[in-house]
Design a protein that fits this description.
The chain is mainly α. It has helices spanning about 1-25, 25-35, 40-50, 55-85, 90-115, 125-150, 170-195, 195-205, 210-235, 235-265, 275-295, 300-320, and strands spanning about 90, 295-300. The protein has a single domain, classed as Up-down Bundle (A middle domain of Talin 1). The chain is built from 12 helices and 2 strands, in the order ααααβαααααααβα. It has a two-stranded antiparallel ribbon. α3 (about 40-50) runs parallel beside α10 (about 235-265) and α5 packs antiparallel against α6.
């Protein structure tokens, strides 16, 4: 518990450092920095879980991060923004384009699961196919960064002013030093946290799937989630949507492939074959969030319903422990 609380604080510090560096370097570089470091806490936790052989937890944390960003965080942001500002509007064209990218990314991520269901059931074959898919997804991630860098006006929030989001008044050296120190401490605390997952599961009677889908993403991304809600509350919904969509894209195109490749290095081969409920949950999250983006406006009721859908999924993952 202490390690989890400390990780939350360090994740917040990483967010402040990244935000400050982005403000100093400009919107394009800032977007790349946010994409690179936005999920660093979760990536570090997942790496140590992978090293410990908790493959179910690792894969569940990937799907949990996507559905958490698109249902819980986006829902909370839309709810808070709607209650404070009423009907909120954003670029329908840009939001729809970002949602389409997310649909494509999620589709690519879950292709190995379809392959396994079609007869590729041997573990070695599934890992081999997942490694190849991971390479393709990383190429897609690199292309998405190039697109963000060269077309900032075509990304969510890229055509809006960014005043009020410059982070603390740190010079570049201070921001870089704080970022590196926080990342190092995250690595230490993440190893401690992963070591406590087994006893925690036994004590509370939870499943690895539930811990991976619900708890790990919440711990790793809470600071980023708070920022998204604050942005929507300040009537900057596009920036909030950029956080939610950007984080989900990063998980699908970068975090998941990196973990697959890292599994080969640490001797824990991991495939991208997910449980049917995980695939269904991500499909629902991506589909609903895409529908929210298509009309170019949102209200507090949509946010509340997004959060309720997340609650239904959380209950399903919790009850699934009976059959595991």
């Amino acid at each position: 518990m202490v390690a989890a609380i400390a990780i939350l604080g360090l994740a917040w510090v990483v967010g402040l450092s990244t935000e400050r560096l982005g403000a100093l370097a400009g919107p394009q570089v800032g977007g790349i920095l946010n994409a690179t470091f936005g999920n660093i806490a979760e990536l570090i936790i997942a790496f140590f879980a992978l090293q410990a052989g908790l493959l179910t937890v690792v894969k569940a944390s990937l799907t949990g991060s996507i559905i958490g960003n698109l249902l819980l965080v986006l829902g909370a942001a839309v709810l808070a923004g709607g209650l404070r500002n009423g009907l909120q509007r954003f670029s329908q064209r840009i939001a729809g384009s970002n949602a389409a990218l997310l649909v494509l990314a999620a589709t690519g991520l879950f292709i190995p699961g379809v392959f396994a269901a079609s007869g590729g059931s041997a573990q070695g074959v599934r890992v081999e196919e997942s490694v190849l898919v991971a390479g393709v997804l990383i190429v897609g991630y690199a292309l998405s960064l190039v697109w963000q860098f060269t077309n900032p006006e075509a990304t969510l929030g890229g055509h809006e002013a960014s005043e009020g989001h410059a982070g603390p008044p740190w010079p570049v050296r201070t921001a870089v030093a704080v970022l590196l120190v926080a990342a190092a401490l995250l690595a230490v605390l993440s190893e401690i946290l992963v070591g406590s997952i087994g006893p925690f599961i036994d004590q509370f009677g939870l499943s690895e799937l539930f811990v991976g889908v619900i708890l790990i993403p919440t711990i790793g991304n809470l600071a980023e989630h708070i920022v998204a809600v604050q942005l929507a509350y300040k009537n900057k919904l596009e920036f909030a949507m950029a956080v939610c969509y950007g984080s989900s894209l990063q998980v699908a195109l970068f975090v998941a492939p990196v973990l697959v490749l890292a599994g080969l290095v640490v001797g824990q081969p991991m495939d991208l074959v997910f449980a049917p409920l995980e695939i269904a949950a991500v499909g629902v999250a991506v589909g609903i969030s895409a529908l929210i983006a298509l009309d170019g406006e949102s209200n507090w009721l949509e946010g509340a319903l997004l959060m309720l859908v997340y609650l239904v999924l959380a209950i399903s993952f919790f009850e699934l422990r009976v059959s595991i």
